[in-house]
Amino acid sequence: MLEKYIKETPDWLSATGPDADIVISGRIRLARNIKGFPFSHWASTKDLNAAADKIKDSVNKIDYFSGSESFKIKELDGLKKQFLVERHLISRELVSIKQGLIIIADKEILSLMVNEEDHIRFQALSSGLSLLDAWQMVSGIDSLLSGHLDYAYCLEFGYLTACPTNVGTGLRASCMLHLPALSMNRRIEKILPTLSRVGLVSRGFYGEGSEAFGDLFQISNQITLGRREEELIESLEKVVKQIIEYERESREEIAAKGGPRIEDRFKRAYALLTNASLISSKEAMELISVVRLGVATGFLDKIPYSALNKLFIITQPAHLQMLMAKELSASERDEERAKLIQKELQFI
Amino acid sequence: MLEKYIKETPDWLSATGPDADIVISGRIRLARNIKGFPFSHWASTKDLNAAADKIKDSVNKIDYFSGSESFKIKELDGLKKQFLVERHLISRELVSIKQGLIIIADKEILSLMVNEEDHIRFQALSSGLSLLDAWQMVSGIDSLLSGHLDYAYCLEFGYLTACPTNVGTGLRASCMLHLPALSMNRRIEKILPTLSRVGLVSRGFYGEGSEAFGDLFQISNQITLGRREEELIESLEKVVKQIIEYERESREEIAAKGGPRIEDRFKRAYALLTNASLISSKEAMELISVVRLGVATGFLDKIPYSALNKLFIITQPAHLQMLMAKELSASERDEERAKLIQKELQFI
Fold first, then answer.
1. Option in A267, A272, A335 nearest B277 (CB)
2. What CATH number was assigned to the domain covering residues A2-250?
3. Which sequence spans correspond to the domains of chain B?
4. Which of A14, A57, A107, B275 has a CA between 20 and 30 Å from the CA of residue A309?
5. Minimal Cα–Cα distance from A276 to chain B, Å?
């Protein structure tokens, strides 16, 4: 039952990890393909179904997946698919793949997309900056699964993937950073363009092509080839730590400068967030972002980061509709979103 | 002591008069000059001082003025003069008249400007739409004073005044209307231009040349000649009653239409008004106006109109500085204004 997930908050939003005031979450994605099966884009429906069956059978042989659930994309309606996208459990690409499958394990910490661009896309999400932990976990599951599946691999290149940019380790590591102070003082505009020089890329809350609403930036590695997984992760973490330091400096500057002009921004954002009768998804993200910075800089009373992280996701359109258990028009969503935010922040 | 006035709220803001939900106040102004003295603009300092002394002596002979206080304009600093302007007790013209005098009686219900354009300008302010009461009061005082002063009067024209537009009755009647619903649905744009056709004129909260911030419109008669005072007042009241009806209709439409989009405007205005750390005078008036409409239409919890009327005036720059008993920069005022509003609305 997909519905049960709406009542729970994913573990990676719990703000319990290192530097969770700035790093919402870390994510490790591993691409794998099965030897003897055509890559998904070239495969027939029969091939895809066979691959999916093979993967599911193998997964079921591993204890870790005993409590997991799997959902066939074609059996989900539009709302549920959108919910999974908002939840960061499936990619927008998988939505339109009929033979696609999503396997969700362990409180959404680990999940597997099947028959997306590659046969298997492992994903591990963790709170804060703990990519190596997430990597060790995915790596362990990957090893276990390799005992039951024959991966497409060659000695020269490493793991083979549908897109050459993923060949080698098949790894993509990313961090979701909340950088409101760097956005406020506009230093972010100087930092982002430098990332490509060190082989990194920045995207919005919903990955490729999404805008950085709510001052949320997803930073990930571009290179997957020619280096060990730990090296790739460590080089990402090194840059992320630098950005964390910049953000922390900027937050301290804002806190030290103080004054009513700065306080005013926070007080107004909190007042609107908790009093408006209508809030669009975009405005909600913006206000949550300002409030989160207000809490971090001490201008606003303490609100747990976990509560604000949760708001970022449950105020998304499909989440709202899943919560209300019905389809809502845009204006109905704006109304329900405002009510939901008030309810969530009322007893904190 | 002018300072004592800052601690009190003028009676005409009490919202106790008829139609006080829409009519903030009514005002009767009567222009009089003393026979044998040149009009103020042509008079020497000696003449002006003599006229002021004569008027003051006469006023002191009338019991009604026993508790009154008089202030010489030249003895007031800029802040205090500005305070009196904001208080609607003196005109902006009187501020620069050295031989000017203001006599304040009876909780600011009645006041006399001396040596403005005319030797005497009586003013009576009352809550709500009660111009005839105000007129009877001014008229009574005017009669009493005429027992001690020889007014410039001729049988053909009536009372003589410095400016021909005031000749005859010397009367100007006006109402301060709060018309937020007509502003919101923009019907006000059609109503205002029609006023001149019936001999009326509309101005902002601070009279001639002031903008209609806070949806406050001061509507007054232009004609002073050839009709009895009661007729002039009744013809103004007739139009005002029509506008009141339009405003009430518009408020009912807003209340009946309802919905989150309308509620949202009110909730946001109230949230900002009570939570911002900085508020400009203009924004304060705009927010107070929306909140006042929110109360009138039932979208917001009850706040006494008297409290909101009071906010319109005490948030003005000189009022704020008098309240703080010191000069404040614009940004300091914005800060103190925000605090003051919060304090005033906290225990309502």
1. A267
2. 3.30.590.10
3. 2-250, 260-346
4. B275
5. 5
